[in-house]
C-alpha cells in the first residue's frame, strides 16, 4: 500500500517541491491528480492481497533512492523442468510518459509472461518527470537490470543468463531498450508495445497518422509529457541512450518484436526504426518483426474494450508470449506445466 500512496502523492509533492520544476509543469501535473490516482489505484488494488509476487528494493548506483521492483517466480507442475534448472529472466518496464508510477502497472503482463514462459519476471518502477528529469528514470532502470544480471541475483533467483528478455510499454520501451545497450549480446529478445523511440520531436509535433482524432481531452498535459527530456533536447539530440531510434542494431537485443497501433503519433518513428533495423540485420539470422493493429490507439492492449478491440488486444499478448517462448527455446529452455 505504501507504493500506491507514494505514487499518488507525487503530483502534490512535485507542486510544493524545492526542486526547480517549472510552474507550467507543476500546475498541469497537479490538475491531473485524479487521473493519476485512478490509474495507479486500478493497477494496484487487484494485487493488494496477492502472494503472486515478492517486492524487493535494489540499491541505486547513481545516488538515487532504492529502486522498487516486484518479482514473479514460476509455479512448477509435474511436467515442468526441475526447479533446480536455471530459469530465464524477463525484465519489463511500465510506461506513462516517463512519469512516476508503480511496478504493478505491468503486473498483469509480468504474471502472464511468468505463467506462460516459466521466466522469473521482474517489473520495475522509477523516478520520473516533472520532478526528476533525464537521466533519472534511465539510471533507475539501468541499475535494476544490472542487478538482475549480477552474480548475486543469478544465484538468488537461479537465473539463466543465456535466456534474458525485456519488454516495455510506451516510455517503458525506451527505458528497456536503452538499458539493454549496456549489456550488448546478453539480451536475447525484446517486445515493444507502442514504443517511444524518438525524443528529438516533441509530442505535439510528431506526425499524426491519417484519421487521427482531432480532439485530445488531455492536450493541456503535453508540456508535462515532454518535461522529462524536452528541456534537455538540444544537449542530447544525438544521444542513442535517450533516442533509441539512433541506436545501431548491434547494440540492441538480438530479436525484437514491435506491437504498433496505427492510430498513434508514434507510428512514424516506430516504423522508421523497424525498417532500418531490418536492413541492418539482413542475413544475420537475427529477427525483427512488426505487427500493425489497424485503428487501434496508443496503449491499446491495456485500454478497456469500449475503446479497443479485445480480439486485437489478446492477439498482441499472444504474439508477445509466442515470441518470448521462441527466444527461450533457442536458448535451450522449454516450459511445460
From TrEMBL:
SUPFAM superfamilies: alpha/beta-Hydrolases. InterPro entries: AB_hydrolase_3, AB_hydrolase_fold, GDXG_lipolytic_enzyme. Residues 92-300 form the Alpha/beta hydrolase fold-3 domain. Pfam families: Abhydrolase_3 (PF07859). Keywords: Hydrolase. GO terms for molecular function: hydrolase activity. It comes from the Eukaryota. This is Alpha/beta hydrolase fold-3 domain-containing protein.
